Structure formats: structure tokens, C-alpha cells
Amino acid sequence: MNWKICEKELIYRGICMVITILLYVVLLVCTLGLALLYALLLWLGIILSEAMILAGLKQNSVKLAPSQLPKIYNIVQEYSKMLEIDCPEVYISQSNGVLNAFATKYLKRNFVILNSDILTSVDEEDEEAVRFIIAHELAHIKRNHINRLWIFFGLIIPFLGTAYSRACETTCDNIATQLVGANSVNGLVLLAVGGKTYKKIDVQSIIMQSENSDGFFSWLSEILCTHPHLLKRIRNIESINN
Questions:
Q1: Distance CA 104, CA 97 (A)
Q2: What does the alpha-carbon distance between residue 235 and residue 192 come to, in Å, rounded to a whole number?
Q3: b/e map of 63-101 (b: 16 or more CB within 10 Å)?
Q4: Fewer CB near the terminus (10 Å): N or C of the chain?
């Protein structure tokens, strides 16, 4: 049966459809625009905060140069060449006894910050510990771990971001061990116990301690951290060297 349909129904339906489609397009554009705006503001915030942090570091630290701590400078040059990366700017910063180092990036420039206590804790003839720490930070640059813009939102998912960070740290430990060699474990022992006692530590006892402390709560405490447990990292390095 041919139903008699009012012609105006079709006309008005068409008009309503066009208006609806146009509004959908407007909403989509506005939503994307707001998302892009928020992303831009977030990016600018990160850039500005990094600029301020680096400016503070530069004004309160000493930059490595051929005439400024040349032995450490040459180590950075050596490993940068082996890793086939542009040599970053390296700064030595006073840290009130904290033994640490980190790599960062501002725009297209890479930086490494070494806390001064790392250098003063190591004798001239026993430089593998410092070599390992430097090589570890340069490995972060090699693997582009310091550029996280394109994975930022994945990193804020619970457990995923910390799991990725721990994997990155293990990769850099592995690369640093390959560069430094057998005594590279001294770098992590130094971070674990400090410069005054790290030479007196028996590494095999550390490995046994690590194995005996494995368990559920050890695993649970680690999955919340950005770094693997230090004893676990030491065990990993020794497994590479052996």
C-alpha cells in the first residue's frame, strides 16, 4: 500500500538532519579544539617548568669542560662516542650528601646532572663506580627515555608508568654494564651504601640477601616504584658479568 506522506515532513526532516549534522561537526571541532588547547597549555607548562629548573641548576652548578674536571669530562666524551650520541652538557651539583644523578632534556638539548658527592666518594684509581653512573645516564639519552611527550598519558595509568620506568632503568643498567665491564657493580653498591663503605661490601652476600628477601611484599613494594630495588639491580648486573 502506498502511504500518503506529507511533503513538508520530508522537507522539515531534511532541514533538521542538516542542522543536526552541522551541530555535531561544531561540537566535534570545539571538543578537539579544547583538547588541543589543553594539550598546548600542558606542553607550555612543562617547557616553562623545565626551563626554570635548568636555569637554577646552571646558576648553582659547575659545567664540565676540558679545563673543568677533565677526567670526568673525557669519560662523558668517550661513552657518548661509543653510544653514538651527541655529547650532552654535564653539570656537577652539590646535593647535601645525596648520591644521585639524572638525565633530562630541554627542547632539543640533553643534560646530565651529577651530584658532587658521587665524585668525592670515589678514589682516582677506582673510577668504575663513576663510570657506571655516567654510562647509565647517557644510556637514558641513547634510548630517548627523557622524551616522554608522546607517551605521557600512558605513563599516568596506575602501575603502567612505573613498570615502564623500571624497565628503562634495567635497560640502562645493562648498557652501562656493557660499557664499563666487570667492576660496573661498584656504581650501584656506591648508591646503596655510600662512598665511605662501598669498597668494604661483599657483593655475593648482597646477592644472597636479595634472593632471600624475594617475596610477595617485596614485589608489592617494587611495583609502586620508578626504579627496581637496588639489590635486585645489583643481582642483575652480576648475572650479566658472569
A1: 21
A2: 13
A3: ebeeeebeebbebbebbbeebebebbbbbbbeeeeebeb
A4: N
Strands 109-115 and 89-93, by their bridges, are parallel
Confidence of residue 55 (pLDDT cuts 50, 70, 90): confident
> What are the residue ranges of helices labelled H in the chain?
7-59, 70-83, 116-120, 128-142, 152-155, 160-180, 185-193, 203-212, 216-222, 230-241
**Which tens digits make up the pLDDT trace of 57-106?**
778 888 888 988 888 899 999 999 999 999 998 988 876 655 678 787 77
Cβ within 8 Å of residue 87, ≥6 positions away: 76, 77, 80, 81
Residue-wise pLDDT for 162-198, tens only, equals 888 889 999 999 999 999 987 888 888 888 777 667 7
Place of cell 538532519: 17
> If 0-12 CB within 10 Å is exposed, 13-18 middle and 19+ buried, where does residue 9 land?
exposed
pTM for the full model? 0.76
In whole angstroms, give the CA distance from residue 103 to residue 113.
6
C-alpha cell at position 90: 654535564
